[in-house]
Amino acid sequence: MKLYNTMTMKKEEFIPLEPGKVKMYVCGPTVYNFIHVGNARPLIIFDALRRFFEYMGYEVAFVQNFTDVDDKIINRAAEEGLSGAEIAEKYTAEYITDAHGLGVRDATFHPKATDNILGIIEIISELIAKGLAYRMDDDVYFRTSNFPEYGKLSHQNIEELVAGARIGVSEIKENPMDFALWKGAKPGEPYWDSPWGKGRPGWHIECSAMAKRYLGETIDIHCGGQDLIFPHHENEIAQSEGCHGKQFVRYWLHNGFISIDSKKMSKSLGNFFTVREAAEAYGYENIRMFMLMSHYRSPLNYSGDILLQAKSALERLKTAKGTLEFLLKNGGDAISGGEEEFMLSLSKYRERFVDSLNDDFNTADAVAVIFELVRDSNLLAAAQAPSKAFARAALDAFNELTGILGLLYADESGSIDDDIEALIAARQTARAEKNWAEADRIRDKLADMGISLEDTPQGVKWKKI
Length: 465
Description:
The protein is an alpha/beta fold.
C-alpha cells in the first residue's frame, strides 16, 4: 500500500511501526455546533480507510478526539445560556447522531480534552524545562524559535510564517509565531488548577496529549483536513517532538477542501451546510457516496445537483443488490457456461478494487470497479435464466466490496409485512384469472404504499420507492 505523505509530498509505501497493527489519530470536532458537510469528509474518508486496513488484516487502534473546552464553546454557552460543559455534551450527542447517520463507526477511543488535563500539564511542564515553552503572566506559550524544524509539515520557513502571523490584541509573547499551550482563566470561564495558576489548555496541546496517552509517542498515521496542516498539525509536531525527542507521526494524510461556488466551505465564512441539513434534503447515505466517488485529496464542489448524482449512483447499487437477492431466492439450479466463467473471474474485480485502494486510497477508482461488477452481472442475468449459484457468488463479491467502503449500510429493503404479501399474492391470482382490472388496481394500491413491482420470469420482484 502506498499513501501520499504530506510531510514528504510524495507517495510512500506504508510500513507500520508494529507488523499487523496500525495506530491512527484523526482530529475530531470542536463540539459547539452541528458539523458541516466539509467536516464530514475526513469522517467518512478515514472511516473507510480504517475499514480497508481491517479488511487487509490489520488490527487498528483508531483515536478521534472531542475538543470540549474552547473559546467557541465558551461563546456558544453564553449565547444559549448554558454552561460550557452542557454545550459540549449537547453537540457531542448531535455529532454522534450525524456520524452514525453517515455510516461512521465509533473510534476505538473517543477521548475528551477535559479528561486529559493531567497529561497536558505534564507535556507543558516538560517543554518549559527544555526551554521550548515559557510563561507570560498567566499564559504559557510554545517558543517556536527554539524548535528549528518548525514549518516542516506546511513546507514554509519560519521567516515566511512570521511575515504572515498576527498577534491577538490581548496576547503578549516573545515571537508572533509562538502559540498558546495554557490560557489563564478569565472571569466566568471554566478552569483547572495548574503550576501556572488556574486556566485551561490551548487548542493544539490536547491532541499531543491524547495521541501519547492512547497510541504512544510515535504513531503511524495522523489524518485531517488540509485546513489543519497549519497551524494545528504543525503545532502538534512541535509540541510532541519537542517534548519526546522523537518522530511524532510517520504518515500525514490530509483530505482536500469542499467548496461552494469555488470558496472553501467554512463556518467562519458563513458559506456552509450542516450535515443535518444535507441529510434531511438528500439522505446520509448519499452524502457518504458523494464523498467516496472522488479521490480524497481532490477538491470537491458541493451542490444539490452533485448530491442527486450521488443518490442516483447509490440507487443503481441498491437495485443491483435487490436483483441479486431476488435471484438468490428465485433463480434456477443449473449453472450455465457463461455463469461459470463469470464466477471464476470474480477474483479479478476484487484484485482491481484492492489495487485501487492500495494506490493512495483511490476510492474513485474502487467505486468504478463496483459499477463494472454491477454492469457485468446485470448483463449476464438479463441474457439468460440466471442460477442461484451465480446470484450467490455475485452478491457475495458485491457485498464484500461495498462493505469495505461502508456503502449500503442502511438496509432499506427489509421484509414486507403480511398485508403487502397478501396484496402481491392477490394480484398474482387476478393475473392468473386474467382479471386485469383487479391486477392493475392492486398494483396501484401497492404503488401508493411505496412498493414497486416488476414481473420477471422468476416471479414478482418488489422494491421500495
